[in-house]
Amino acid sequence: MSDGQKNEERKSFFLEYIENTETLKNKMSELKTYCDCLIQHANKMSESAAAGTLYAEEKIDAKSLLKSTCKAFLKTLEECMLMANATFASELFEPSPAESPPVAPVKPMKAQHHASSSHSKAERHLELNNNHEHGPGIEVVKCQERIPIKDDDEQADKLERNNVETINNTYYEDAESRRTSEDSSSMPEERLPSGSLQLAAEMQDSVMLQEEEEEEEEELETFFSLMSHRFCDIRLEEDNFIPTEYFLESCYAIVPVLDKLGPTVFAPVKMDFVGNIKKINQKYITDKEKFTTLQKIVLDDVERHLAHIRNSATEALLWLKRGLKFLKEFLEEVKNGEVNIQEALNNAYGRTLRQYHGWVVRGVFALALRASPTYENFIAALTVNEGDEQKASFYRTMQRDLGIYLPAMENLLVILDDFYDQYNLESEEVV
Question: Labelling 368: which of 132, 243, 253, 340 has CA 20 to 30 A away?
Fold first, then answer.
């Protein structure tokens, strides 16, 4: 298939996506209208009944009107659900377009990593150098070196064990010769060097304890250490401008976290998240040389008076950073010791997305919360090898990886927030 045909297909898909999204929003507005009518009918009947002014004929009419409104409400709700399923089913389960960064397929409650996702640190830097060219004055937001839990200098341990064995052997040979000498000279047995024996035993116990701790502190990998693209690997350009391609790839890489929370119930959240990534990507691929950073994309919208237009790249980035804040706050809750996943999600939602959502979207999210996984199942889904979550060192490894990933993610969000404030691009609109 030629590049022209691919571009036409992408354009057609994008336009259809926008049209279906607008249609669904109109249906949701209609649904809210019916809800308001139901509340008004119920209040009117309650007030009339309390005042004793509702006659038999009026009761029949009010009951009939209330019943018909309920039917219309339920029918519209069903239409919204059918429309959402028909419109976004392919969006959620079909592969992304070829030019979009890949999303690794993940089974529910279990992380799956492809060979292409397992980059070493050297490979990540090589990939970044191939994707981006930088001039002088580049600031680097770089992942810290992973501190190995297990000491790699096995020679030192071996030498220490050999030294202890030598001390023991020397002592026992010396003790035996002393015992023979003391027996021949009729010296009391109490004069044996018991202090040296105790010291040797303590040294041997110390070595054995150290070996046991090293076995427990073995090196483990997690979902976050094997991500194909990470926010902490992003190289900032001059003036803290964020490279578009690597940022979008890093956003795609964190999408599987939503699958681990529930691929079905969190489908609307994932749909909105991925949709915003694709809107920005559509703008980016129109001129990759011009839109090398997110800030350049937004500035182009500002100059062309498109920044406040619905479905613009600027609006998509606004909602994308809000979604990233929600994920960051949730993972912070888990990192800080919250073992109730539903509570962690609810706290994160309250601090980030809730203020921008109307009652319909809040209701959808409330339903998703009820189906959130247990802490044990969620942590198990973040392992690379089955059973790693049972090991004592896995929790410490997860803490270490999140301690590297989340601060870098927050730094990028702060940069975007400051940029949007500078150009007055924030919005309090409720959807």
Answer: 253
Chain length of the chain = 431
pLDDT tens for each residue of 319-354: 999 999 999 999 999 999 999 999 999 999 999 999
Taking every pair of C-alpha atoms in the chain, what is the biggest distance, in angstroms? 125
Element at 236 (helix H, strand E): strand 235-236
Distance CA 385, CA 381 (A): 10
Cα(222)–Cα(384) distance, rounded to whole angstroms? 6
In this predicted model, what pLDDT tens digit does every residue of 126-181 receive, in sequence order?
A: 444 444 444 444 444 445 544 444 444 454 455 445 544 554 555 445 555 555 55
Three-class DSSP category at 141: coil
Q: Is pLDDT above 70 for 6?
A: no
CB atoms within 10 A of CB 101: 19
Element (H, E) at 140: strand 139-140
- Alpha helices for 217-261 (secondary structure H): 244-254, 256-261
DSSP type of residue 391: S
For residues 393 and 221, give the distance between their C-alpha atoms in angstroms, rounded to a whole number. Answer: 11
What is the phi/psi pair of residue 383, to 5°? -85, 160
